[in-house]
Amino acid sequence: MKNKLPLIIGIVAIVIALIIAVVVLVMPKEETKKEINLEEVSNKITENSAFKEMATEDISTDTLKNYFQVNTENVEKVVGKVPLMNVHSSLYVIIQAKEGKANEVKEDLNEFLKGYEELWSRYLPDQYEYVQNRKFDVIGDYVYLIIAEDSGKLENIVKE
């Protein structure tokens, strides 16, 4: 019996370790929601891009509704800039959607993009290229659209 005691203790320890491992793997994981400081990100984008020199207008809820055709009932907050003149296709918008509404907001923006792409496809080739190389995605409850020469660099600011 003395010789079997270490074996039994070892088996019990392995069984306990397996039970703990299974419990940890099966337990629902608490999701950490990504929080984006919209004003801070907007300032960084503006300061680190051509938006600093460009004549733009800040995007308000009214702009979101009237220009982008986004259902503002699905929106908590919005930041961004649109050009004042139709010689630039560059714009950016970051929307904090209401919980669970980010995909609906993205669908609304996607509808806007169809017309925007059509417009620029017939106008200025260099600006149309920016539209084609846009960054458009969802992070948690946030939806962003970036159309700019350096859209990849600006997307990294949003994702920081």
Uncertain regions spanning at least 5 consecutive residues: none
Q: Please tally the β strands and state the result.
A: 5
- Count of helical stretches: 6
Ends apart, CA distance between termini: 61 Å
Give the overall average pLDDT: 90
Structure commentary:
With 160 residues, the protein is of the alpha+beta class. It has one domain. The chain has a five-stranded antiparallel β-sheet, with helices on both faces. Helix 4 packs antiparallel against helix 5. The longest helix has 22 residues. The model has no long low-confidence stretch (mean pLDDT 90).
Question: TL;DR of this structure?
Answer:
The chain is α+β, with helices and mostly antiparallel strands and 160 residues long. Helix content is 47%, strand content 19%.
Can you lay out the helices and strands and say which pair or pack?
Blueprint: H1 5-26, H2 38-47, E1 56-58, H3 61-66, E2 75-83, E3 91-97, H4 102-121, H5 125-132, E4 135-139, E5 142-147, H6 151-159
Antiparallel strand pairs: 1-2, 2-3, 3-5, 4-5
Helix pairs in contact: 4-5
